[in-house]
Amino acid sequence: MRRELADGPVPLSGVQARLWFLAQLEPDSSAYNVPLALRLTGPLQQEALLGAVRDLAERHHVLRGVIDDSGPEPVMVVRDAGAVPVSTARVDRSEVEDVLAAHLATPFALDREPPMRAVLLAVDDGEHVLSLTFHHIATDAWTRGLLLSELSGLYAARLGLHPPLDPPPAQYAQVSPEPDPADLDWWAGHLDGLPPVLDLPTDRPRPAVPDPAGAAIELELPAGLSERVRAVAAAYRSTPFIVLLAGLQALLARLSASADIAVGVPVSGRDHPDTEGVVGCFLNTVVVRTDVGGDPTGRDLLARARESALGALAHAGTPFDRVVDRLRPERNLAATPLFQVMLNYVPGVAAPELPGLEASEIHLPELTTKFDLSWHVVDEGPGAPLRGGLAYRTDLFEPGTAAKLTRWYAALLDGLLADLDTPVGAVPLEPVTGPAVAGGPPPEPPAGAVHHLIERWVDETPGAPAVVGADRALTYAELEAAANRIAHWLLEAGVAADEPVGVLLEPGADLACALFGIQKSGGGYLPMDPAYPAARIAAMLEAAGVRAVVTVSEFAGLIGDGRRVLALDRAPSLPETRPDVEVRPEHLHHVIFTSGSTGTPKAVAAEHGGVLNYLGGMLPRIGVPGGSFAVVSTPAADFGLTCVFGALTTGGTVHLVPRETAMDPAAFAGYLAEHRVDVVKCVPSHLELLASGGDLAAVLPGELLILAGEACPWDLVERARAARPGLRIQSHYGHTESTMICLVCDTEEIPAARRTGIVPLGRPLPGVYGHLVDAALRPVPPGVPGELVVGGPGSPGATSAGPS
């Protein structure tokens, strides 16, 4: 609706009010400054050009308006065109870009000066640079073309080569956009449940308060791809913007591992013909939210993007700030509300033409940006390549990452349009020719079996301490004798090579003897926790096909009927000699049931060769040969096996700490005070429990703390390091299927600047490799979230999901 032109102050439009609010919030910011710089070569008539610049300000009130905030609502007071600063300066050619950058970086005091200023730089007699800087409160992308066209006409008129221009069709205050509050309900429903932040794989953790500094990289789609974008758009009764949007949302889905993708899209807001020739900011931003889940084909994705965009554009009359106010998203200074990625598709602007001069635009590098990623594409029409750029936050992304994103965007568009019936997720972003991580060649494993490494220390240091439990301590000779008795008992019971044998014992010396003895018999042990319900124990025994269980009388009732029970507290007299049983690397070492955190627990069988490879790679990384290791976890998991075999295969001592002691801060601190313990391995939440006693230093080992089993926060690592200076801290990552652990992070290797959030997975052990794949097991390149599929010599020999 066209309004009458007021003689006095005029109210601010909705978008102007928002920009004024932001200017007050950050008065020293130049984030909303808009540059327009022209390089002019030839015989310039300086007075005519400067007069044309003043004529621009005279024609358009919004270019010379100043904000008056003294009343109930802010208003714009129109000043004389002479209030617009217009100056000249002489500069050296090498100084031009720096002068332009400084000009652009100077903030506007909108309550004291108009939102426009100009300077004409004389480089030499035949070269000048005109620098116009505007505040966004007075201009938008559409206005840029108007200003260039009018400047050309006004300059020509000043030279007498063209009649004076007709007055503008209206002033901004007459036709500025008015919000449509009826659309707020649509937006509230459309954006309900939108994730607050798109979780992009940044190079640095997102700071609590963003740095406005930005940079940009060019984007140019090849001519052939640009024409395919236009052709597919026409075939689907759409626009190139829809195709570009679909490709970008598909890329963002890959980068964020999300199917709910929201992108901010600027809209011109010039739906009425009266606005087409008016200078001012009509711009609004809409949020285009698309569900890209279900691995859609290119056709499906285009249809979804088109529907989402048309819905958003049909309700574009509601100012973005009103939508934010209505939705009231969780306020987070670290990220912009509702969306963090913008796509701006704009038509090309005709090259500037000034009579008698060769004119070209100077595009200044992006020094600030308001969004994580801000894409813009300029379409100059058929036959011209689509070009633009990607502006990015430099506090989040490195230049190399931004360049990679533009390559991936072009590759995804190319693949998507090459075959619209192919799932978009199958389009490669770049060739993946090998594993994402690889640990190098594995060490040559010792021949034989794991228990042979322990027997070496039995022979070399029989009197050295081997096991410390709550019930008793054992030397290597005593451990050997007890294990040999158990092995002979199992052989008498008919246990054969590769046969799983159950172990149902609390942590203690008996547990160490049972594990060692079962290996000597040729069997593989299946550890179970006496705290488990009887039904779970029965299911584990049935699934693994166990015929014999080593336990004590107290727990014999949990085993059920039909299985041989070997109660160590009722053991017969048995030989203590080392049994003569051949155990080879391919024989079963142990069977462990997974936690079932991702589904039904399954039994994973590990061979001696896999465990030997693990120990050969892990023990040098641990670096505490012959040390004292404490096991503080359940005996039913493979979690503590690093400590059991890290000690016994290197001639060290393993402490099998009772459950009650391991879970009590005071009791565990007392245990460490009484016993020298070099290495402790626990989950981060367990360490937090022990730290809750108030003395973190008292519950830490002497040399090495290993944190595993959960995502490890850096805060916990730093607190532990501060409590015990010099303590080495590692984070181990792996799963039962990869024979305990496959990646290790030595936390001191991580630069201090990157020690925020979660400790990284680390480097793979020798022989371990991993491929990064998506949900459909398709390889993805580094930098894209995915699942890590690991392989190597530690991979299990067999798995079982249950009785079926």
Report on the structure:
This protein is an alpha/beta fold and 804 residues long. The chain contains 21 helices and 33 strands. The chain has a nine-stranded mixed sheet, with helices on both faces. Helix 20 (684-691) links the parallel strand 26 and strand 27 (704-708). Helix 8 (240-256) crosses helix 11 (399-418). The longest helix has 20 residues, at 399-418. The protein is elongated, with a radius of gyration of 36 Å. Residues 797-804 have low confidence and may be disordered.
How much of the sequence lies in strands comes to 15-25%
Largest sheet: 9 strands, mixed
The stretches of 5 or more residues where confidence is low (pLDDT under 50) are 797-804
The count of strands amounts to 33
Q: Please, how many helices?
A: 21
Provide the structure class: alpha/beta
- Whole-angstrom Rg: 36 Å
Helix content: 25-40%
Q: Which strand order do you get reading across the main beta sheet?
A: 17-16-25-24-26-27-28-29-30
In round numbers, the mean pLDDT is: 92
* Alpha carbon gap, first and last residue: 73 Å
What is the approximate shape?
elongated
